[in-house]
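To make this tangible, we now present a fold written out as tokens:
***
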Amino acid sequence: MTVFVKICGLGRVEDVRAAVDAGADAVGFVFAESVRRISPARAAAISAAVPAHVKRVAVMMHPANDEWQEVLQVFAPDALQTDAADFAALEVPASVEQWPVYRESGAAPETRGTYIYEGQKSGKGKQVDWERAAAIASKGNMILAGGLSADNVAMAINTVRPFGVDVSSGVETAPAEKDAQLIQEFLTAVRAAEKNL
């Protein structure tokens, strides 16, 4: 089994390149209130060289539809990630995958597709209860997020058995500053853990 890997919160072209070179399956760009927030134009510019097999994900939180439309027009993502309840108010074309976020202690996942499972606050490096996550990981394609790093991702994969994993602060040397070596170490740890699935 291959574990899908998303590197999130990218803000520099060298970070995007490092994620792609390390073998990431998706790269995330934050358009919500965060130290990692960038503009749609900036995201489009730094992800211009991302190959077609790597998904470019717009990460939002409770966006107004006009805010989302700007991201759609300027950045043209492959997927939109935002809280599950947000999608009802958004016009998302069929060409863009919908990745709802389900939060620990919140509503159970209601999708057979890809979704993010994380804690109450995004981007804070807070680990969810892996045993609880494992109990629902068979529903759809869970991408496990929250507090993952090269040091614990193998244990997370073995415990939860998710479809994928998502990392942001765990591959940073400072807020919003990704480190190419940490990205590579994370991917190496994931690929090693796959062999035990």
